[in-house]
């Protein structure tokens, strides 16, 4: 039995709802036809979408949905992962990680030209990206020359940085943190990295190697002591600062000249 929906729920249908014709008023062979307030739906026909407005704009009679808009950049090469990621105002990934190539270049040029005037605020933005790069390059060069000294480089660098940190804090009034001490010592290792690169092509266990190693020790010591006395404002104590720093770089020079550890070149049968 057909029951009227209005009497069942006790409310009249809304203006936007659809309702069916009563079977008594329609032919039994004719399927049910549903009517709306504006559009009619018949079997095999397509409703009109004109006038419907969505989140992306109006939909035409053809039913084509407009394309999405926005300021999304197209994907590029693998190097775009180190950029801003396509978002405006977003800092580069390397900058968020504390790697700034312009600062590394400026500090490296200061080490390579120690006779220029050193800015006392040069280590305000101390970092370890440059020192770690130089230490890895130094170890790789020694490895190519037949001297795998990675463990000794790490040990000498760690012990030397702790010793220099203690000495500088005992000598200066304002003091310096271990992070900046390690950064200065790592950047000033750059001339020693050049000696390690020469050890790949020529043998340093000779008079020429000794002279180059001595020159690199003096160069590294002069650069590091200059930065320390400028930052800590202790120019009258430069020789006292240069002495332990020179001993540290002397250990790195010995690693680049001599082979430390067991000799693996001879195989005992």
From TrEMBL:
Coiled coil: none
Yip1 domain residues: 113-254
Pfam families in the cross-refs: Yip1
Cellular component per GO, a single term: trans-Golgi network
Region named Disordered: 1-37
Topology within the bilayer: Multi-pass membrane protein
Protein name: Protein YIP
Provenance organism: Athelia psychrophila
Record lineage: Eukaryota, Fungi, Dikarya, Basidiomycota, Agaricomycotina
